[in-house]
UniProtKB/TrEMBL annotation:
Keywords: Cell outer membrane, Ion transport, Membrane, Porin, Signal, Transmembrane, Transmembrane beta strand, Transport
UniProt xrefs under InterPro entries: Gram-neg_bact_OMP, Gram_neg_porin_domain, Porin_dom_sf
Keyword presence, Calcium: no
Stated name of the protein: Porin
PANTHER family, per the entry: MAJOR OUTER MEMBRANE PROTEIN P.IA, PROTEIN YDDL-RELATED
Length: 342
């Protein structure tokens, strides 16, 4: 699954093992320029009327590298920013649901560093938790109906599940990999208004080899975090995920259980399954995603059926066509686009 492999490769600063690396890798500059045309049946994912105007939805520039310290430890670092929100002055065209041209003119996707030692990986920075890349990315392989969002403790946009793709201000420790297994703990802050330096705590365990992955994650949001918890109980999110890769087919699934979400303290489950078939430069993906009716609050039940086909004209250029149908919301859509990488 090329899309998934690309996403997972992009998170390499989080999953590098402690095995020996021969030489320091000099800083590498990379980027993505993506354009699309999307037609929505009613409104877009943030409830606004939009026309089918060609849109630049990714203008990414990044820098990453690996340095061998004098004592033999490795230092990996990465910075990545998306300039598309400032290029598209209309905030409704931003794929980071909730972002606007005035509040988020440039979206910082990654900013962090990791020290790799024989005792494990120690990391700090934004988008360093690895929860999305390890658990959700193999399911979320789409361009229009993706789960991109600004970092927040509350759901927004059309996200079926509540896990954000990009996180804020994290300290991370990952154990050395043993028999394909590792654990990771995250100490983070996503809202200064909470008055707590550790308003988000995460722990997960993962088994992963070349073909199979299984993991369990628990994220706990402090009850003082406005919008995430109800002020009386800590909000919790349990996640179980698994994926398996064959030669030309991959299957991925994720189950998310939310407890005491938001001011209403809503409880609900989310399930998703995605399959992808790849044959040379051609790939096709289909996904079923379901959110049950929350016990309280404004969120509603919804089911998404998504499909995407893509063709790799060149290692640097991809064409894609995608459609999404939602059972309850008015976000049905069809889109076409291209992605250029350098």
């Amino acid at each position: 699954m090329k899309q998934t492999l690309t996403t997972l490769t992009g998170a390499c600063v989080l999953v590098l093992s402690t095995q020996a690396i021969a030489d320091t890798k000099p800083p590498q500059v990379y980027g993505t320029i993506s354009a699309r045309v999307v037609d929505f049946s009613d409104t877009n994912f943030i409830g606004q009327d939009v026309d089918s105007t060609p849109t630049l939805y990714e203008g990414i520039v990044g820098l990453k590298g690996l340095h061998i310290l004098q004592n033999g430890m490795k230092l990996a670092y990465r910075f990545e920013a998306d300039f598309a929100p400032i290029a598209e002055a209309d905030g409704s065209e931003s794929k980071y649901y909730g972002a606007t041209s005035t509040e988020d003119p440039i979206f910082i996707r990654y900013a962090g560093a990791a020290l790799i030692t024989q005792y494990g990986l120690f990391a700090f920075g934004d988008a360093m938790s690895g929860v999305y890349s390890e658990f959700y990315a193999p399911v979320d392989v789409f361009e229009v109906n993706t789960q991109d969002s600004t970092p927040t403790g509350a759901p927004n946009g059309s996200r079926m599940w509540t896990q954000t793709k990009w996180s804020k201000d994290g300290l991370v420790y990952k154990t050395p990999v043993w028999n394909h297994m590792f654990a990771k703990v995250v100490y983070a802050s996503i809202g200064n208004e909470s008055g707590e330096a550790d308003d988000l705590k995460i722990i997960h365990g993962v088994y992963k080899d070349k073909a199979f992955m299984f993991g369990v994650n628990l994220s706990v949001y402090d009850k003082t975090l406005a919008g995430a918890a109800n002020g009386e109980d800590d909000r919790k999110r349990w996640v179980v995920a698994s994926h398996y890769n064959w030669d030309s087919f991959s299957l991925a699934g994720v189950y998310e259980k939310n407890i005491a979400l938001g001011s209403a303290g809503a409880d609900f489950d989310v399930k998703a399954v995605t399959g992808t078939y790849t044959n040379g430069a051609f790939s096709a993906s289909a996904s079923w995603q379901n959110r049950e009716t929350p016990s309280a609050g404004a969120l509603t039940e919804d089911t998404a059926k998504l499909a995407k086909v893509s063709y790799q004209l060149d290692p640097m250029m991809e064409l894609w066509l995608e459609a999404g149908k939602y059972s309850e919301s008015d976000n049905d859509n069809i889109g076409v686009g291209t992605k250029v990488k350098f």
